[in-house]
Amino acid sequence: MRDTGEFLFTSESVSEGHPDKVADRLSDTVLDLYLGADPYSRVACETLVTTNRVVLAGETRGPDTITPEVLAEHCRAAIRDIGYDQPGFSWRNAAIKVHLHAQSADIAQGVDAAGNKDEGAGDQGMMFGYACRETEALMPAPLYYAHLVLRRIKELRHAQDASVAGLLPDAKSQITLRYVDGHPVGATSVVVSTQHEEHLDQNEVKALVWPIVESCLPSGWMPPEREFYVNPTGKFVTGGPDGDCGLTGRKIIVDTYGGAAPHGGGAFSGKDPTKVDRSAAYACRYLAKNVVAAGLADRCTLQVSYAIGVSRPLSLYVDLQGTGKDVDEVKLERVLRELVDLSPRGIREHLQLNRPIYAVTSAYGHFGREPDAEMGTFTWERPDLVPELRASFGR
After folding, report:
1. What is d(CA 286, CA 272) in angstroms, rounded to the nearest whole number?
2. C-alpha closest to that of 182 among 306, 1, 38
3. Which of the chain's ends, N or C, has fewer CB atoms near its CB within 10 Å?
4. Pairing outcome for strands 167-180 and 315-319
5. What is the Cα Rg of the chain in Å?
6. For residue range 37-94, what is the model confidence (pLDDT) as tens digits?
7. CA neighbor of 106 nearest in space, from 89, 86, 81, 123
8. Cβ of 371: how many Cβ atoms within 10 Å?
9. How far is the C-alpha of 271 from the C-alpha of 27, rounded, in Å?
10. CB contact burial 102-140 (16+ within 10 A = b; e otherwise)
11. pTM to 2 decimal places
12. What angle (nearest 5°) sits at the alpha carbon of residue 364, between those of residues 360 and 366?
């Protein structure tokens, strides 16, 4: 983003009940099931959801105890947890078809460690990480608040709070912020579309949503009421997979930085940590966040690249976007390589990724979340490299 002048920037979020996010949740449910049984399982699971139907497809390598029946049982539990028990999509009677098969031997021979060969990347590609000082979570503000609004609605809905009575799982948010000289100063518009029961009209839904948005934004940031849009079509009763087909990996910008930073193009959900689309993107966020948390810059973008079957990254690029605090970016690239082994094995061991920790990442963003030491989730959000980074640059 620009550092001077005035401009507007927009990001969106989608809820756990959005059909694409239902698909992401089910793909990560499959992944967690395999990693819980064998931490070295290989999974690349894609999910399609539509009216009362779920299709799981892809490649796996893991315990034979994970049968189609077991997978279907866990998928039903996930759908129930999201809150879908509607005529067009219900955990009780949705047809669940499993079309998972063995991982390709050609891919396996490139990825697996053997003899003196370390395990290689599961695919080629480039991955990005980003951090900035716009929020305490070191995330871009438009996306951070868009996530926060939907997460708060979800929490109230799961708690069966009367303040959201009648709201259903499928929802989207969009927040436009005004920036002055690179800093967000307020919202110029807010859009929230949320599925609801038939008896609620548009004004009633708006009355439910307004105080939630107001509580999530900083004081004084609410837009004029005329720029607060709730269910702009007027009605949103049919939603979720019954209203729109959902697929794994269609919300990659929602999952990362809301458009404020580059994206390599690879989706995350349903992929085990040998897939650098996921693990290296986590590592890049980890490094970028620690650079900013250490006070070395106000913004940091990282890129790494890999070749399938090759363990070492082909490149590491750091861009402080002119916000570095007397930091040489070439030296910083070297220091980061020394602090963290960016091979697939090095990443998964450093961030402890071979665990069933992924279902919780499938909605409300993979980044900017609080690490949970007990659950082992969001390890890539730990600022534990800060002391070493500061020491490396005499801070």
Report:
1. 18
2. 1
3. C
4. unpaired
5. 21
6. 999 999 999 999 999 999 999 999 999 999 999 999 999 999 999 999 999 999 999 9
7. 123
8. 14
9. 8
10. ebeeebeebbbeeeeeebbbbbebbbbbbbbbbbebbbb
11. 0.95
12. 65
**How many Å apart are CA 48 and CA 245, to the nearest integer?**
7
Report the DSSP beta bridge partners of residue 302. Answer: 129, 318
Residue that is written with structure tokens 């259903």 in the block: 168
Q: How many residues in total does the chain contain?
A: 395
Angle subtended by helix axes 202-216 and 141-158, to nearest 10: 120
**How many CA within 13 A on the CB side of residue 126?**
12
What CA–CA distances, in Å, run from 90 to 85, 166, 338?
4, 17, 50
356 is written with which tokens? 């069933």
Strand pairing report for 53-61 and 85-86: unpaired
CA distance 259 to 143: 9
| Angle at alpha carbon of residue 47, lines to 43 and 48, rounded to 5° | 165
| Residue 315 near residue 276, CB atoms below 8 Å | no
Residue written as token pair 């063995």: 102
d(CA 120, CA 344): 7
